[in-house]
Design a protein that fits this description.
single chain, 221 residues, alpha+beta, Glutaredoxin, 5-stranded mixed sheet, 10% strand
Length: 221
């Protein structure tokens, strides 16, 4: 299936989920999330990689249009992220070659220290300009237009470090049994997504409430 077909199918599924969950949705100003309705408690919590900090993971793909729509909300949320919270993105590929390229592209930008700056531009290039960044050579060429050294980009893309992070991301997605994106996991134990809380705009409020809940459930030092 082409990336465009995957995107259309993904969007249809998302809209259907939103319609079915409309009655369960809560407004961005709501005070309390309802377990099993707005979020799920993971039966087998996973260890976090953030140490004493509360970990917030976003499972996503550059190829996912809903991830693109959620991105501005998360970018704004990160500007006021609590000091005891660590946010990390985890790209997924579901075994799709095109999404695998995009996952490695994410880790390449991260390795070069430009992921935060260029991620919105990657989304725009893919979804607005239809630039085929899911082809590695096209990604290298595009990165060069953003002022990056093409050879350094290619070397980073093919490096052991990026390959290791990519393989690790697959393992993490498997551990959490990630079936759809975007999906946010808070502290290895709470799962929340836009369709469950009604909109992308409601996600920051939902994440903050789950951070508070996770903080309260952590052992007191």
């Amino acid at each position: 299936m082409s990336l465009s077909n995957v995107a259309r199918a993904s969007r249809r599924g998302f809209l259907a989920a939103v319609a079915l969950s409309a009655l369960a949705a809560f407004p961005a100003t709501a005070q309390t999330l309802v377990e099993g309705q707005h979020y799920t408690r993971i039966k087998n919590p996973q260890p976090v990689g953030s140490g004493k900090k509360i970990e917030v993971l976003e499972f996503f793909s550059y190829g996912c249009p809903h991830c693109r729509d959620l991105d501005p909300e998360l970018v704004a949320w990160q500007k006021s992220i609590p000091a005891d919270v660590e946010f990390r993105r985890v790209p997924v590929d579901y075994g799709r070659e095109q999404w695998a390229v995009l996952a490695k592209a994410y880790y390449t930008l991260e390795a070069l220290g430009v992921e935060e700056k260029l991620t919105p531009e990657v989304f725009a290039a893919l979804h607005d300009k239809k630039t085929p960044l899911y082809q590695d050579k096209a990604f290298f060429d595009w990165a060069a237009t953003k002022g990056l050294d093409r050879k350094k980009v290619e070397d980073a893309y093919n490096s052991f470090g990026v390959t290791s992070k990519f393989n690790r991301s697959r393992a993490i997605a498997k551990d959490y049994n990630v079936q759809s994106v975007p999906l946010v996991i808070v502290d290895g134990k709470f799962q929340v997504s836009s369709d469950k809380v009604g909109s992308h705009a409601a996600m920051p409020t939902a994440i903050n409430q789950l951070i508070t809940k996770a903080r309260a459930e952590r052992p007191k030092s």
